[in-house]
Amino acid sequence: MAKWIDACAADNIEEEDVIRFDHEGRTFAIYRSPDDAFFCTDGLCTHEKVHLSDGLVMEYRIECPKHNGVFDYRTGEALRAPVCVNLKTYNTKVEDGRVYIEV
């Protein structure tokens, strides 16, 4: 059964940025979009398991720091080779200034 996990303070993430969040042996990437919405994906690139939190966020895309593959972090869609497997995405919500993810 899915549950909501308190991941971070909303203020911990700058606009158009990403942070890493680890929980129960899993790594997530939490993003803040240019329109102040929050999104969450698996935290490791599907190509070579590199931490996406070290990547470059541009609008609604995250670029992997190792081979420059690109994903749309809103949908998890792989947009540029060498990535070809989509990222898993997770629901997010903000309550009382905290970002929660549904896992």
From TrEMBL:
Its cofactor is [2Fe-2S] cluster. PROSITE patterns: RIESKE. Residues 5-101 form the Rieske domain. Keywords: 2Fe-2S, Dioxygenase, Iron, Iron-sulfur, Metal-binding, Oxidoreductase. GO terms for molecular function: 2 iron, 2 sulfur cluster binding; dioxygenase activity; metal ion binding. NCBIfam families: MocE_fam_FeS. Belongs to the bacterial ring-hydroxylating dioxygenase ferredoxin component family. This is 3-phenylpropionate/trans-cinnamate dioxygenase ferredoxin subunit.
